[in-house]
Amino acid sequence: MTHKIILDTDPGIDDAMAIFFAFQHPDIEVLGLTTVYGNIPVAMAARNALTLCDVAGRQDIPVTKGVAMPWVGPESEYAHFVHGDDGFGNINYPPSTRELDSRDSAQFIVDKARQHPGEITLVAIGPLGNIAMALRLEPDLPKLVKGISIMGGAAFVPGNVTPVAEANIWNDAHAADIVFSADWEVKMFGLDVTLFAPTDPEFVNILAAKNPTLGGFVQQASQFYIDFYSQNRDEKVCFFHDAFPLAQLVAPELFEFTRGNIRISTDDLNRGQTIVAPPGTTASPLWTEAPFVQAATGVKHDELFQLFIDTYAL
Ligand code: BDR
Ligand code: CA
């Protein structure tokens, strides 16, 4: 079965690895890359997405530029310290000269959802401003898509930006609140699974050996990212957060979920916290009347990384 997806992204090194996985997998059809600010400013995110299409020889895939700012508050601080000045670990890769699709990311999402009702899975691997904007443009979006999977949040584990918040949700907590509150059950792949599945840096060498073009790009770009993640550790590690929701589409048997009611904190202190209450854990209507989420809480690590390798090898 082929999964039609729109990949909403802020590339970003783990975004690049995830995008190539999606391009490579025969059961995934990428209808477009919609970009958003996050790791880097949105203009750079859009250009980087075009560049990744060039690397992969996929100039047929439309790329759009979307929101540049959080729903509320000032322009974000970017994560250049994780992803480098260029978003690709400072490898000086020549930027694409291809044109963007003229539509805004949110409009593109709405247009495609109307064009393929019930067929598209939205996969969001950056802050959620484009999806929130698409919900404003088309309140029936939840009925028009097949589903939504996001990389973001931390249900039962600490955050990576603050003690309670993961970066994608922290970056645009108000947008995340809109998205999680819409009439769909979000599949959330947060730090519960992504940060608990570190990989040895040898992984990127294997990707490069299996696929010198795509894996080679990931290997080069990842060196800066590996150094960031390996600070204050004895061994080198790497985390490919953004590929998790894509892997689940094609290999659902590798994941376990916990269902619960979810609230997103938007106050300053707890900004971006994703608080999940499984049924029976609270009688508070603040949670029992809140929308449900499927939060990934378990993953078969070895099989997951073998899936990435096998898919890059195709
Ligand atoms: C998320 O934040 C970004 O740095 C990554 O690309 C990923 O989407 C992990 O917290
Ligand atoms: Ca990302």
TrEMBL record:
InterPro entries (UniProt xref): Inosine/uridine_hydrolase_dom, IUNH, Ribo_hydro-like
Pfam families reported for this sequence: IU_nuc_hydro
Keyword terms, alphabetized: Glycosidase, Hydrolase
Residue ranges annotated for the Inosine/uridine-preferring nucleoside hydrolase domain, each copy included: 5-305
CDD domains per record: nuc_hydro_CaPnhB (cd02650)
Highest taxon of source: Bacteria
One MF annotation (Gene Ontology) recorded for this entry: hydrolase activity
Leader peptide range in chain numbering: none
Name used for this protein in its record: Nucleoside hydrolase
Organism: Alteromonas gilva
